Amino acid sequence: MKKELGFLNLICIIAAILFIALALLNALTSGDFLSTDNLFITMVCLVMALMFAINPLLYLKSEGRLPIPFAKRLSGSKSSVSPTPVSGAAAPPPLLDAKGRPVPPDVRQIAAKFGQAQPKDV
Q1: Within a domain: 27
Q2: How far apart are the C-alpha atoms of 15 and 38, rounded to whole Å?
Q3: pTM for the whole thing?
Q4: Boundaries of domain holding 14
Q5: Is residue 108 part of a domain?
Q6: Per-residue DSSP letters for the chain?
Q7: Alpha carbon distance 106, 81 (integer Å)
Q8: CB atoms within 10 A of CB 45
Q9: What is the pLDDT of residues 52-101, one digit of tens each?
Q10: Contacts of 42 (CB under 8 A, 6+ apart)
Q11: How many domains does the chain divide into?
Q12: d(CA 61, CA 20)
């Protein structure tokens, strides 16, 4: 799966570069750049380049390889608030997914709701 994703991202990057090159070629070779037709072709090429470039950029952001300037970094010392206060008792073990990663807080809350005993009507 990792190789296919890398290959598709490479194809998207190549397509985005080709569309940017086509927009530059249109700007450099056209006689009157500010005509309606030339501006339309340039904008279509730039929008297509953006559409092809957004997927690899979002992938890099999700992997943490794309530094985003002026974005606040989340600190590891952020305290998590549990939905039920635990006083004097040991904290429950962390809820893990199938791969052993900790689940997000909203999933923990949903799992806690399913774990509560429901009164049965007889």
Answers
A1: yes
A2: 20
A3: 0.56
A4: 2-63
A5: no
A6: -HHHHHHHHHHHHHHHHHHHHHHHHHHHH-S-TTSHHHHHHHHHHHHHHHHHHHHHHHHHHHHT-S--TTPPPPPTTPPPPPSS---SSPPPPPPB-TTSPBPPHHHHHHHHHHHSPPPPP-
A7: 11
A8: 20
A9: 999 999 999 988 888 888 877 654 444 455 555 555 556 666 777 778 88
A10: 23, 26, 27
A11: 1
A12: 22
Amino acid letter for position 91: A
Spatial separation of the C-alpha atoms in residues 20 and 51, rounded to whole Å: 12
Q: Backbone phi, then psi, for 48, in 5-degree steps? A: -65, -40
Q: Measuring CA to CA, how many Å separate 47 from each of 7, 12, 13, 84, 106?
A: 22, 13, 14, 49, 36
In a domain, 37, yes or no: yes
Note whether residue 24 is domain-resident: yes
